[in-house]
Amino acid sequence: GSATDKWCSLADQKYLDVDLGASYSITDFVVAHAGAGNEDVNYNTKDFDISASADKSAWTNCATVTGNAANVTKHSVTCSGRYVRLSVKSPTQGSDKAARIYEFEVVGK
Questions:
Q1: Are the CB atoms for 62 and 77 separated by under 8 Å?
Q2: 3-state DSSP call for residue 34?
Q3: Cβ–Cβ under 8 Å, residues 63 and 70
Q4: Would you state the pLDDT for residue 1?
Q5: 3-state secondary structure of 73
Q6: Which DSSP category does 2 fall into?
Q7: Rounded to whole angstroms, how far apart are CA atoms 71 and 94?
Q8: In whole angstroms, what is the distance from residue 10 CA to residue 13 CA?
Q9: Exposure string (b/e) for 19-42, b if CB count within 10 Å is 16 or more?
Q10: What whole-number distance in Å separates Cα of residue 107 and Cα of residue 5?
Q11: What is the full per-residue pLDDT of the chain (109 aa) written as tens digits?
Q12: Contact by Cβ (8 Å): 64, 19
């Protein structure tokens, strides 16, 4: 999406699921956080996991990120699946509870 689109969640369990339409070998994930959308960098996602699944029931962890402060993060992985999930553990650098994701890009073949 463009920098004007944003996925935002205040739920206790914050996750964003994407259906790729078919199963792929995944090589990279790119995540654009709050700062990429010109928001305060203190709202950048601090801790999150990325996982993949063939059936949306059994999930395999692809990446675990802790202590992130960057506006955009790139994660090289060896993963496969039709569904990918971005699970937010700590949505911001401080006590703000809202997850703010501007882009979740999946690269594969």
A1: yes
A2: helix
A3: no
A4: 42
A5: strand
A6: -
A7: 15
A8: 8
A9: eeeeebebeebebbbbbbbeeeee
A10: 20
A11: 445 579 999 999 999 999 999 999 999 999 999 999 999 999 999 999 999 999 999 999 999 999 999 999 999 999 999 999 999 999 999 999 999 999 999 999 8
A12: no
Nearest 5°: the CA angle 88, 24, 107 is: 60
Residues 6+ apart with CB under 8 A from 97: 10, 91
* Of 54, 62, 64, the residue nearest 79 (C-alpha): 62
Q: What is the rounded CA–CA span in Å between residue 52 and residue 7?
A: 19
Among candidate residues 15, 55, 54, the one with its CA nearest the CA of residue 31: 15
Count how many residues are written for the chain.
109
Residue closest to 81 by CA, chosen among 41, 51, 36, 46: 51
Report the alpha-carbon distance of residue 81 to residue 96 in Å, rounded.
32
Place of tokens 């979740």: 104
Structure-token pair, residue 4: 């004007």
Rounded to two decimals, what is the model's pTM? 0.93
